[in-house]
């Protein structure tokens, strides 16, 4: 029995009243949205055991995992949105439901292009380092295997391809001098295809609408069904029975339609599309020679770049990008950032973006959609402004609620006193006063301001019937905080550098170019070292030499402290865990760690470590590894290298699968680690905060974050921590005096030149 995967069920309030015509609105406005995800066995159980439709409707939400409950989905045309939420809240599922038109109210004719997040783990220097899961997700059809990279990207433009297909069908039929009936059959075929699309829409309208609208929709459906039947009869007509007059009329119609479509095709400007494809591919890191390579020979990471390029050259109504920076280096990230800004200024395309890169979201997005507590809220501004506004709202509503609680307590005391005196003395005025004040407490306590901040008026601000005259004051609550704790590094017992690379020069083969050229690097306990660089420059190779996974060549040597313990998080750590999980479906995070520690820690200690990294209780013991999200797998991979506390943490692109909340918590935890840290990352925030020790004004770091300018920055009496950022370029480590900012500035110049030249 095979698992067909989870089923997404989406419903909303306005299902029967959405317009599903030939001119859908570019805006999305859906109220009362509910999204439930059912596993394959839940769906099959429901189909086989549910015999009562009325009961199943009320139970539908409880049959699966509810991601969205009674939310409003609003997207304005041309606006760039950032979808924000914690790992595991369902962001990718919601985007998939939108792209596949599973949400009622998103028209069948709305053009949506989506780049979906994958679980691929790609090594810069090893194209074969791709997981089986990724091979399945990025598998290509036989028709695409022969296409070059450029041809594959250009083939992603569906509107252009469909227009060209129709032009080719009509032109072949018109040019066929041997068969005078070819244009007749061609025009009838295309007309029938168009009628079938209209029939699909009419069936949807008739199914979803009721009342007078439903009656009209059913009449339109019957009319279109009649047209489809006539069209089918024409397709099935015996060619010998078609008269000369019909042949002449249909041939002229075929020529006219071909000329019209050819005109449309010419306006698309095929040459411009090729130039656009080249521009995007160059921006995403491809070289001129790579454009003519067969698409099927690319590794998963480069194939993902092709998919991203194919989406960027289109002009869809809605563009959805789920973690588009996962396979890009910093140059590619900055180029994409600038390119999306240009789209915002020159196009009406709506963008929905998910990213763990704070700087990227802040630069690209105008508004935020916050997924929290199964609801969607909206904020106009960037992440820093949202977090500042959230703190203000929490303080504002907290003060209002506190003041009202004091007022209610005073009024209740007065009511008790007046009631007591009234009953004792028979004073009806006191009793009426107590009753009036009780009514005020029951009916008039709650929100005292309107949505615009003015004084609340019932007949203006809460029109219609309600259980309560005013809404209760709700103080915004912080989401359950993410806390990551790293164990201290063990004592070295005697001093000395942890590791030293001297004059390392490395190449894979004698005939291949040099990857690392005269590398010198020394790391002491407490040091913070960051290495940045473009994809393929040799960063992962350097880490493999440093951690002992690869032996150095004949030139140079690596010296390690005799008691050194290294904790190495590799780029493919998540992919390796996924392979283990699929190979053994019963494997959990807890059983993985128990097997890893091999009796050196008891179950309680293992659970404590997992909980300190964000995998508590049943998540650790009950959820199979292959069901864990990318962020949870990162935590498990960190647990595998931290159970035996290391002196040196080597982290290679550790933020790829994490949301920015977790990245912030990780940065705070790493800042307090008393051992040495070597980070290879394209995440500017992580390198700035952990390596440079800078507090980011746009990110709320934990209170225990240790910055460069904090008083206590000494470690083991060895003086202040050494903080340095390197860029690996042409095989050499180049120290950046101004840190990340210096590297950013150099890349910004290249990006502007690329955008201007191409």
TrEMBL record:
Pfam families given in the database record: ABC_tran, ABC_tran_Xtn
A GO molecular-function descriptor: ATP binding
Alphabetical keyword list: ATP-binding, Nucleotide-binding, Repeat
Skewed-composition ranges (Acidic residues): 704-717
Topology term for the membrane: Multi-pass membrane protein
Classification via InterPro entries: AAA+_ATPase, ABC_tran_Xtn, ABC_transporter-like_ATP-bd, ABC_transporter-like_CS, ABCF, P-loop_NTPase
Keyword Nucleotide-binding attached: yes
Any one Gene Ontology cellular component term annotated for this protein: membrane
Predominant localisation class: membrane
Domain ABC transporter, residue spans: 50-398, 499-755
Places the protein is found: Membrane
Regions that span the bilayer: none
Ranges where the record places region Disordered: 39-63, 702-722
Domain of life: Eukaryota
PANTHER family: ATP-BINDING TRANSPORT PROTEIN-RELATED, ATPASE, PUTATIVE (AFU_ORTHOLOGUE AFUA_1G16440)-RELATED
Name of the protein described by the UniProt record: ABC transporter domain-containing protein
């Amino acid at each position: 029995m095979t698992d067909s995967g989870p089923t997404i069920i989406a419903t909303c309030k306005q299902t029967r009243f959405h317009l599903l015509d030939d001119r859908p609105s570019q805006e999305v406005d859906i109220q009362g949205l509910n999204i439930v995800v059912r596993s394959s066995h839940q769906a099959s159980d429901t189909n086989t055991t549910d015999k009562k439709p009325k009961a199943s409707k009320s139970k539908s939400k409880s049959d699966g995992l509810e991601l969205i409950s009674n939310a409003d989905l609003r997207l304005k045309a041309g606006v760039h949105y950032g979808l924000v939420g914690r790992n595991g809240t369902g962001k990718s599922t919601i985007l998939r439901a939108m792209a596949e038109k599973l949400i009622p109210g998103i028209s069948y004719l709305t053009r949506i292009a989506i780049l979906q997040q994958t679980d691929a783990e790609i090594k810069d220097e090893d194209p074969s380092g791709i997981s089986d899961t990724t091979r399945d997700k990025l598998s290509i059809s036989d028709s695409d295997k022969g296409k070059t990279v450029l041809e594959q990207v250009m083939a992603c433009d569906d509107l252009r391809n469909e227009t060209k297909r129709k032009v080719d069908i009509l032109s072949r039929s018109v040019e066929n001098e041997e068969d005078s009936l070819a244009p007749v059959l061609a025009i009838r075929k295309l007309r029938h295809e168009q009628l079938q699309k209209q029939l699909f829409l009419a069936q949807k309208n008739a199914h979803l609408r009721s009342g007078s609208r439903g009656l009209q929709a059913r009449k339109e459906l019957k009319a279109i069904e009649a047209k489809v039947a006539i069209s089918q009869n024409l397709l099935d007509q015996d060619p010998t029975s078609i008269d000369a007059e019909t042949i002449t009329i249909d041939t002229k119609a075929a020529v006219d339609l071909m000329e019209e479509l050819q005109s449309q095709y010419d306006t698309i400007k095929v040459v411009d599309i090729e130039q656009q494809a080249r521009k995007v591919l160059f921006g995403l890191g491809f070289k001129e020679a790579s454009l003519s390579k067969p698409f099927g020979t690319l590794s998963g990471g480069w194939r993902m770049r092709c998919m991203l390029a194919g989406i960027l050259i289109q002009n869809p109504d809605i563009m959805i990008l789920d973690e588009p920076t996962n396979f890009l280096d910093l140059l590619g990230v900055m180029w994409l950032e600038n390119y999306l800004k240009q789209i915002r200024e020159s196009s009406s395309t709506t963008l929905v973006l998910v990213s763990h890169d704070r700087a990227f979201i802040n630069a690209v997005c105008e508004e935020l959609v916050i997924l929290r507590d199964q609801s969607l809220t909206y904020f106009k501004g960037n992440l820093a402004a949202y977090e500042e506004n959230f703190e203000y709202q929490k303080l504002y509503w907290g003060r209002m609620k506190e003041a009202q609680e004091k007022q209610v307590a005073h009024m209740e005391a007065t009511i008790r006193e007046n009631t007591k005196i009234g009953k004792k003395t028979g004073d009806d005025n006191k009793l009426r006063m107590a009753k009036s004040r009780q009514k005020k407490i029951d009916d008039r306590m709650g929100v005292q301001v309107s949505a615009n901040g003015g004084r609340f008026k019932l007949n203006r601000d809460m029109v219609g019937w309600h259980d309560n005259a005013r809404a209760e004051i709700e103080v915004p609550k912080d989401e359950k905080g993410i806390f990551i704790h790293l164990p201290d590094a063990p004592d070295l017992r005697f001093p000395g550098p942890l590791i030293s690379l001297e004059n390392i020069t490395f190449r894979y083969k004698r005939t291949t170019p040099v990857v690392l050229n005269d590398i010198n690097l020394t790391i002491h306990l407490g040091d913070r070292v960051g290495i940045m660089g473009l994809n393929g420059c040799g960063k992962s190779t350097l880490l493999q030499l440093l951690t002992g996974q690869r032996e150095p060549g004949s030139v140079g040597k690596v010296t390690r402290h005799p008691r050194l313990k290294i904790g190495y998080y590799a780029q493919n750590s998540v992919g390796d865990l996924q392979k283990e999980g699929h190979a053994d479906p019963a494997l959990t995070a807890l059983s993985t760690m128990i097997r890893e520690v091999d009796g050196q820690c008891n179950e309680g200690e293992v659970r404590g470590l997992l909980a300190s990294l964000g995998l508590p209780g049943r998540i650790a013991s009950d959820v199979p590894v292959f069901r864990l999200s990318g962020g949870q797998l990162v935590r498990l991979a960190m647990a595998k290298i931290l159970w035996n506390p290391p002196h040196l943490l080597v982290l290679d692109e550790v933020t790829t699968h994490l949301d920015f909340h977790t990245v912030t918590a990780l940065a705070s935890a790493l800042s307090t680690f008393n051992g040495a840290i070597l980070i290879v990352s394209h995440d500017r925030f992580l390198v700035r905060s952990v390596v440079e020790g800078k507090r980011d004004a746009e990110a709320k770091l934990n209170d225990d974050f240790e910055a460069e300018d904090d008083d206590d920055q000494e470690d083991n009496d060895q003086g202040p921590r050494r903080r340095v950022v390197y860029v690996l370029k042409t095989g050499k480590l180049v120290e950046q005096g101004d840190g990340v900012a210096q590297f950013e500035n150099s890349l910004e110049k290249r990006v502007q030149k690329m955008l201007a030249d191409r």
